[in-house]
Amino acid sequence: MKFVIGNWKMNGTRAILREMIERAANIQTENRVALCVPFTMLGEKSDIIAMGAQDISTHDRGAYTGEISGAMLAEAGAKYVIVGHSERRMYHDETNDIVRAKAARALESGLTPIICVGETADERRAGKTLEIITSGVRESVPENVSGDIIIAYEPRWAIGAGITPTADDIATAHRVIAETLSYMHLIGTPILYGASVNSKNVADIVAIENVDGVLVGGASLKPDEFIPIIENAK
Ligand code: PEP
Fold first, then answer.
1. Is residue 100 included in any domain, yes or no?
2. Ligand 1 binding residues, C-beta < 6 A
């Protein structure tokens, strides 16, 4: 079993989601599949595709205009929520401390946080990849993990770029994340790879040691890509 999770960002329509759900109903898969869609689409139902959100407030209620709480996401139908995606870190100045608070809120609400970590192009050039992902995991995972969590390794320079790190680089990053999780007594936490995954490269990527699945951006919006990704991720 592998995880295949899509991130629609601020894209997509209900019509595309319904087409995806219809087509997914006809495939045989042991994989755990989810789509992290815009908040307005969280109520769509599918036996194969669970719904996920892309952000959550650090607060549980109150005067925080525009924010959404974990309880609201759960009530709307979400099972998962992405926290600390590189675009939230980049455009909304989200730090590891904020990401940790969001992940804690998700767990309190019975949601599975998908905690993203990954290095920028500058950090990679400076040889800091392993340092950034290690501190990302240590500082973004809540102290008392009371439910399921998922880590997504997303090299920020490869997101939406049509390029991926080498298999060796992915293996090294995932091994270091697995070691960090083991040190934190979180052995067995799934570690997904994300950035430029498509229906052609997914089988090779999930075959890499310690890769428990994929987080897919652009290709998750196209049924002709996402359905084969689900089928080929084994
Ligand atoms: C992402 O933004 O999480 C992502 C993986 O994007 P893409 O697959 O388009 O690189």
1. no
2. 7, 154, 159-160, 194-197, 215-219
